């Protein structure tokens, strides 16, 4: 029997397959009845799900990050696909192939790893090249670096996402450096390769992507600076100022304090890295959001919570024309010149504005309760 992946689920389809539970949240309906909000995932994507019945019993049978066998029916709600679950049961780990459940970069990991080696080999600065060679020689670390996602939910949320994102920044750097004089390209390239290196310890990615204890307590920026400092000590004669410049790029690549950046960019190279990192992250995040909308025929996406907006799917490349209203049977099209003139709008008399007053004696002024203030008898 052919496996049913999330990406294959269509509106009104029966759903019968094995998925990884990415989210599991108990909730209460307006009528006071408990229900379960679920999010299933496999390597092809993610889908929301609802479990309405027997939640008290079923809640004890599986947890977040478990594999479950699901039977239900798909439907589109608010322009998003969701599964209404009829039956669900836990599947033992040994019965599944993990590769079926974790999304991977569209690029080959082996191909990107070779590109990384080529980038390092092309560096001219001996100290920066020695630093990157120290990273490449650390096989356990590099296995993590090449496998880790770049984020939990914002961008490049798949195995190999960190490496793909870092290499994309290198290509952007090589495209813009020739446009400006005096840019330290080697420093910028190494900053791009290492700016998110701390994510190899910040995130867990053996199951659904999540944050580790170290990630929650320290964050990838702090972890990354520690990793870089450790490798710098392995490079003889690494200049102190070059070390400061590189670590500053890691500490400032989020740009602003409110975005979690311990420092703001204070060098040209750090500023370039901040903007290119932000651009590549947003482009990937928006394109991924649009790609998830295959179930909807709308020209607009569902609301993106992190960006707080809807995105227009059409960009003019596919020759798609603006939709027009279809002429229904019995509908008559009246030429513009034959339309009756618009009705004359008569002005509406203005009403006096009622002003609120909290002075209770104001209304007594005209009653002359106390005379006119003279002493005449």
From TrEMBL:
Keywords: Hydrolase. Pfam families: HD (PF01966), tRNA_anti-codon (PF01336). The keyword Lipoprotein does not apply. SUPFAM superfamilies: HD-domain/PDEase-like. The keyword Zinc does not apply. It comes from the Bacteria. Residues 162-282 form the HD domain. One of its GO terms (biological process) is rRNA 3'-end processing. GO terms for molecular function: hydrolase activity; nucleic acid binding. NCBIfam families: HDIG. This is Metal dependent phosphohydrolase. It comes from Pelobacter propionicus (strain DSM 2379 / NBRC 103807 / OttBd1).
